[in-house]
Specification:
The protein is α/β, with parallel strands linked by helices. 46% of the residues lie in helices and 21% in strands. The longest helix is centred in the last third of the chain and has 13 residues.
Length: 112
């Protein structure tokens, strides 16, 4: 059974998609980017579904893990959304703009 992964943010996230696609036992199920055209280009190349909204992607797809590759100001909300859905999170750095947000993210993932 493959690990089902989604990637949110396709700047550096394109590299995440590329690396996941090269791993045996990992399936890139979906990608999301506020630039839907970019998401569609990446999804076509890797046989996944494209979304304009990362939370919508998490709601509609059965994911085991998500890479959060957006600007840091959005990391907290996306990480909390993933944790509340039981999805494992790999978050790009910097983790969040404040230590308080980092602590909240760590706590949410730990509880999930």
């Amino acid at each position: 059974m493959a690990v089902r992964v989604g990637v949110v943010g396709l700047g550096i996230g394109k590299r995440h998609v590329q690396e996941y696609a090269a791993l045996e036992g990992v399936q890139v199920v979906a990608v999301a980017d506020t630039d839907l055209q970019r998401a569609k280009q990446v999804s076509t190349r890797y046989g996944s579904r494209a979304y304009e909204d990362g939370v919508a992607m998490m709601d509609r797809e059965s994911l085991d893990a998500v890479s959060v590759c957006t600007p840091p100001r959005w990391h907290r909300d996306l990480t909390l959304a993933a944790a509340s859905r039981g999805i494992h999170v790999l978050c790009e750095k910097p983790m969040a703009p404040t230590i308080a947000e980092c602590d909240e993210m760590i706590d949410a993932c730990g509880q999930a």
